[in-house]
Recover the amino acids of this structure.
């Protein structure tokens, strides 16, 4: 007979005593269970004790999470969160340096648990830590020369405890004084500072900036780009990552009118070349967090173009019209004619002829072409940059096309406008950075005007592809589609420089694109005859069942997810996997990203599949309705899903990528008996169905199938060729 569902068999440890095996009745109050355990070891005042998970996390058992205890768990009897918080609150104020250091180390570890954190914060612990940072450091700095390692550890553990406590989101960041901000900033501004202290200080500054507009202004007054740059010139990638994160946070929260000014300062300080030399081209491989911060910086730099991209040209603005005149002057080597240089009609006719050669749609008033947003004035800026910095290529393209027949000319003006719009779409200009993306391109860090140079390479590609396709004006959209494919394929290999990108495009000629398309078309060949369609319908359920089994097997292997936090700097992870019998979801927190699968017995929590009511995706997820920096952007919404169980309880996920999102939503829907509708399922269905169809039809192609089986051969005359292997 199986044990009752409410009874859990566990082992409970107590220092200096043998562990006890015990059956816990989950219907009984937790206080009654703790009292029973205390009485077993003759301990009084049971209300001062609590139970913890006996693993690296040391999380307290509460009424809220007690149902996560499973058979075979090892628990530890320890002092209650309140008592522990009270003791540590007193010990960190000790006059003994050794006692203070040990207690701060314990506090840094204990603060990861939200139950303890709440009790310590209730004792005004955050204020105590900030006071220690503000005033205590001066006192300890006198001892720094003779006790430098101790001082560094003391401050490091103080800041670590502060970061862990703030990470729970219990206390608002707006409550901190200017003195505290100045002190944290001073640790960053010093040239020689303990590495751990510097890391924590940079993490605190980033969180302040991202979580409070008021603190952004205060931090911006204390920290300058010039003071942050030396930290990028070292070899510690963690320090470099934290530093770039602070720069990104300052950039992201800066008012729009100050971002251009900040970008100008970054250019003056040669930030791009410093990052290129010391980070991107460093012998140390770039880890995921650094790749994410470089991606964020890339996005923020491109977003500086958003204002120009969304600005229409004013046909009456003479300064803007002068840019078009400059394009004409460079192309045709003409000077501005004096007012008496001919009749008005003659000059208008000459302008119209030249604007037609330049490839504008509106030959009379080309300014009208730039009233479309996007790309607005950004297209005109790119054209002028190309004309000034790549003058020979610009003149050659314009003159080449002006000497062709009208229907075969590649209109430079129209092409530039549409190409700029396309490049903005490819690089997602104007969109917020995603929390989970690491897609940075090293080549964009190799030039101060990387977008403009990118445009210059692509406009020459467009002209080359136009000639290769022997295109006419009716083929304009087809040419743009081919150019887009060429650019996307070249970007996919992540070239390290603009020259490498250019070389890659040289290998992706129109002929090569046709070969690639032909190859892909053959692989995706579709059969439309009625017997074949009937065979497809017959095979489809088998393929769907195969996909379903693959999804469930993948869920059984499990996935590591990032823990949802308002502060992204310190990564926390949790793991979730399906039991082999497909009846329970096991999940739990991890100290670090795992290498390989995590066994079921190391995951503390479980959720029976029978209790799952629904799977919710996107903006309907409860964790997507919360306010937080970078949370409401499109890419994070596309990776979010939640599992609803019981009445209003949720298990919230943000998948590491689109692939894992599709696997998990498909698998969960399959467990609930619902249809798997992800893009990944459709792709798998098409691929497997096409493969199965080809395999089944393989024997029918030019092969004579005999009506009778072939005869059995005669026995050999002797068996001399047989020998005994033994």
């Amino acid at each position: 007979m199986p044990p009752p569902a409410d009874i859990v068999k566990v082992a409970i440890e107590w220092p200096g005593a043998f562990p006890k095996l015990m059956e816990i009745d989950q219907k009984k109050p937790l206080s009654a269970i703790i009292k029973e355990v205390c009485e077993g070891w003759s301990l009084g005042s049971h209300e001062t004790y609590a139970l913890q998970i006996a693993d690296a996390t040391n999380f307290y058992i509460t009424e809220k999470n007690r149902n996560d205890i499973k058979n075979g768990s090892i628990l530890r009897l320890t002092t209650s969160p309140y008592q522990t918080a009270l003791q540590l609150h007193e010990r960190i104020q000790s006059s003994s340096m050794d006692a203070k250091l040990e207690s701060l180390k314990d506090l840094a570890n204990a603060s990861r648990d939200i139950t303890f954190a709440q009790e310590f914060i209730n004792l005004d612990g955050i204020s105590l830590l900030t006071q220690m940072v503000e005033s205590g450091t001066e006192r300890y700095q006198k001892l720094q020369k003779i006790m430098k390692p101790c001082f560094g550890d003391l401050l490091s553990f103080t800041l670590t405890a502060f970061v862990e406590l703030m990470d729970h989101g219990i206390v608002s960041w707006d409550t901190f004084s200017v003195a505290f901000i100045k002190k944290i900033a001073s640790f960053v501004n010093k040239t020689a500072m303990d590495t751990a202290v510097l890391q924590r200080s940079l993490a605190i500054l980033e969180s302040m900036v991202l979580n409070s507009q008021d603190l952004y202004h205060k931090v911006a007054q204390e920290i300058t780009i010039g003071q942050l740059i030396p930290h990028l010139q070292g070899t510690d990638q963690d320090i470099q990552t934290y530093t770039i994160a602070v720069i990104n946070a300052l950039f992201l929260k800066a008012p729009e009118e100050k971002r251009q000014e900040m970008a100008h300062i970054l250019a003056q300080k040669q930030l791009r070349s410093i990052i290129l030399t010391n980070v991107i081209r460093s012998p140390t491989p770039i880890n995921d967090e650094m790749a994410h911060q470089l991606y964020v910086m890339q996005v923020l730099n491109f977003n500086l173009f958003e204002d120009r991209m969304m600005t229409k040209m004013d046909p009456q603005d003479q300064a803007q019209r002068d840019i078009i005149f400059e394009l004409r002057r460079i192309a045709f080597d003409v000077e501005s004619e004096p007012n008496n240089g001919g009749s008005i009609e003659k000059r208008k006719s000459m302008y119209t002829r030249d604007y037609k050669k330049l490839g504008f749609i509106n030959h009379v008033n080309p300014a009208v072409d730039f009233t479309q947003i996007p790309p607005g004035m950004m297209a005109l800026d790119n054209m002028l940059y190309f004309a000034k910095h790549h003058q020979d290529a610009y003149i050659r393209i314009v003159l080449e096309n002006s000497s062709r027949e009208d229907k075969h000319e590649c209109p430079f003006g129209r092409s530039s406008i549409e190409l700029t719009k396309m490049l903005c779409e490819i690089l997602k200009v104007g969109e917020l950075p995603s929390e989970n993306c690491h897609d940075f391109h090293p080549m964009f860090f190799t030039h101060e005007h990387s977008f403009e140079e990118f445009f210059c390479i692509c406009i020459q590609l467009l002209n080359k592809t136009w000639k290769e396709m022997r295109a006419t004006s009716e083929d304009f959209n087809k040419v743009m589609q081919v150019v887009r494919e060429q650019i996307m394929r070249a970007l996919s290999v992540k070239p390290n420089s603009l020259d490498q990108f250019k070389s890659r495009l040289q290998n992706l000629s129109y002929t090569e694109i046709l070969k690639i398309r032909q190859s892909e078309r053959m692989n995706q060949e579709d059969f439309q005859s009625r017997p074949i369609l009937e065979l497809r319908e017959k095979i489809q359920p088998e393929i769907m069942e195969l996909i379903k089994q693959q999804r469930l097997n993948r869920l059984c292997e499990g996935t590591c997810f990032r823990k949802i936090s308002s502060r992204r700097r310190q990564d926390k992870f949790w793991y979730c996997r399906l039991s082999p019998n497909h009846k329970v979801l096991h999940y739990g927190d991890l100290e670090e990203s795992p290498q390989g699968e995590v066994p079921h017995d190391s995951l503390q929590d479980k959720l029976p599949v029978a209790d799952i009511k629904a799977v919710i995706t996107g903006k309907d997820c409860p964790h997507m309705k919360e306010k937080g920096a970078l949370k409401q952007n499109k890419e994070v919404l596309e990776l979010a899903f939640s599992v609803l169980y019981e009445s209003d309880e949720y298990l919230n996920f943000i998948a590491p990528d689109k692939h894992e999102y599709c696997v998990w939503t498909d698998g969960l829907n399959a467990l609930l008996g619902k249809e798997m509708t992800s893009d990944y399922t459709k792709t798998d269905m098409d691929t497997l169905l096409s493969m199965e169809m080809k395999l089944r039809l393989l024997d029918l192609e030019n092969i004579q199938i005999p009506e009778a089986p072939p005869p059995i051969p005669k026995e050999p005359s002797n068996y001399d060729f047989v020998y005994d292997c033994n």
